[in-house]
Design goal:
This protein has 371 residues and is an alpha+beta fold. 48% of the residues lie in helices and 13% in strands. Strand 2 (44-46) and strand 3 (52-56) form a beta hairpin.
C-alpha cells in the first residue's frame, strides 16, 4: 500500500438491498443472487440479513478508474438480481419492509442473531465502506484521531435513507440512527496509542458487546484483513459517482492526517459528546441543513462544513489528481440533491412510495457521461 509520499490506494465496499420488483419489499434471496454474480464473474459477500448483498472493488489509485468499476459492479449485480426475480437498490434503509428480516444462514450470523436479538433481525441497513492504504496498523489507528472530526459532514453528504416503512422518517439518514443501536457503532474514541486501541477492543470483547474484532463497528477502524484504514460512516450513496466522490474525499482526509502526523502535529481531541451532537445533526438534516462545527462550536450549514473540509484537504486532492473530479460532481450534486433529497422529492410529488423505489432504482444505475 502507498505511503504518505505517494498517492494512497483506495477501495470501496458497497452494500445493496434486494427487493421485490413490484412491491419494493426486501426479498430474502441474497444467496441465489450471489451464486448468479459468481457465474457472471464478480465476487460478492453476504450480509447479516438475507435481503442484503455487498460488492467490493479492486485496489485503485485513479479515482476515475474506481468510478468505472463501481458502475460496472452495480450494472452486473443488478442484472444478476433481475435474473433471480429481485431489484437492486442503493438505499440506506428499505423504503418498505416486512416485520423483520431473515438472518443469512451462516454460523457467525446465527450467533450474532442469538446474542443481539431484534437488533440483528431489524437490520437491512446498507452503507459504504472506504479502505485507504496506510503504511502500517499503527498509522491506521493514529490517523483515526485526525479523521474523526470530519465524519459528520461525510454522513450529511451521503445521506440516502429518508423514507422507511413507506413514510418520511424526519431524518435524511435514518440508517445512521438505527445503526447506532449496536453497542460498538458510531464515532471511534480518541486513541492515545495502538495499545489503547487494542485495550478498548479487548474490553468490548470481554464485556460481550462484540463477539469478535469484525464486530468493531466504529466508523473508523483499522482493518483486520488489509493494511488499510476503513471509514464506514456513510449510507450507501445513491449513485456510483457519489461513492467515488466519497472515496476521493476520504482518501484526501486520510492523506492529510498522515502528513500531519509526519509533521508532528497533534490531532484536535474533539469530545465524543460533541461528535454525537454533530452526528445527530447530520443524520437529521443532511446536506441541506445545519450542523454543529466540531472544531469551533456553533451551528453552520453542512455545505459550509463541506467547503471547510475541501479547503482542509485541497493539497491532497490536487496531488492525487482528484480535485476537478470532486468539485465537478459536487457542483452537480448541489443542483440535483443527494439521495435523501431526491427520495423526499419523489415521495412528496404524489405520496406514492413506488415513486421513491423507482427513483432509487434509477439512481443505482445512473451512469452519466459527465456531471
Amino acid at each position: 500500500m502507498a505511503g504518505t509520499g505517494d498517492v494512497a490506494t483506495v477501495g470501496v465496499e458497497e452494500e445493496f438491498l434486494l427487493t421485490d420488483p413490484v412491491t419494493g419489499a426486501p426479498t430474502p434471496n441474497n444467496t441465489q443472487v450471489a451464486d448468479a454474480a459468481k457465474a457472471a464473474g464478480i465476487e460478492v459477500s453476504l450480509e447479516l440479513t438475507s435481503c442484503q448483498i455487498e460488492t467490493g472493488t479492486g485496489v485503485h489509485t485513479d479515482i476515475r478508474d474506481l468510478h468505472t468499476e463501481l458502475q460496472q459492479l452495480r450494472a452486473t449485480l443488478a442484472s444478476c438480481a433481475t435474473e433471480q426475480g429481485a431489484r437492486l437498490l442503493a438505499a440506506g434503509v428499505p423504503p418498505t419492509m416486512p416485520e423483520g428480516f431473515p438472518v443469512t444462514d451462516t454460523p457467525r450470523y446465527r450467533q450474532i442473531a442469538q446474542n443481539y436479538g431484534m437488533i440483528a433481525h431489524e437490520q437491512g441497513l446498507c452503507g459504504c465502506h472506504v479502505h485507504v492504504g496506510v503504511p502500517d496498523r499503527d498509522a491506521a489507528i493514529a490517523v483515526s484521531n485526525h479523521v474523526r472530526p470530519w465524519l459528520p459532514v461525510l454522513l450529511a453528504l451521503t445521506a440516502n435513507s429518508a423514507v422507511y416503512q413507506g413514510r418520511e422518517t424526519g431524518y435524511a439518514s435514518w440508517r445512521s440512527i438505527l445503526w447506532r443501536r449496536w453497542p460498538s457503532a458510531g464515532p471511534p474514541p480518541y486513541f492515545t496509542s495502538t495499545a489503547d486501541y487494542e485495550s478498548i477492543v479487548a474490553m468490548m470483547r470481554s464485556g460481550g458487546s462484540i463477539l469478535d474484532k469484525k464486530m468493531v463497528y466504529w466508523d473508523i477502524r483499522a482493518s483486520e484483513t488489509f493494511p488499510t484504514v476503513e471509514i464506514r460512516v456513510s449510507d450507501i450513496p445513491a449513485t456510483s459517482a457519489e461513492s467515488a466522490v466519497l472515496a476521493a474525499l476520504i482518501r484526501a482526509t486520510v492523506t492529510t492526517g498522515l502528513r500531519a502526523i509526519e509533521a508532528g502535529q497533534t490531532a484536535v481531541a474533539v469530545p465524543g459528546e460533541v461528535l454525537r451532537v454533530a452526528y445527530w445533526n447530520a443524520a437529521h438534516s443532511g446536506l441541506d441543513g445545519h450542523g454543529l462545527d466540531p472544531f469551533a462550536g456553533g451551528m453552520v450549514s453542512h455545505r459550509n462544513l463541506l467547503a471547510q473540509l475541501i479547503d482542509h484537504v485541497e493539497p491532497a486532492l490536487r496531488d492525487a489528481g482528484d480535485h476537478d473530479f470532486v468539485t465537478e460532481h459536487l457542483n452537480h450534486l448541489d443542483r440535483t440533491g443527494n439521495g435523501a433529497r431526491r427520495q423526499l422529492h419523489a415521495l412528496r410529488a404524489r405520496g406514492e412510495v413506488a415513486d421513491v423505489i423507482d427513483e432509487l432504482a434509477h439512481a443505482t444505475l445512473h451512469t452519466p457521461e459527465s456531471p
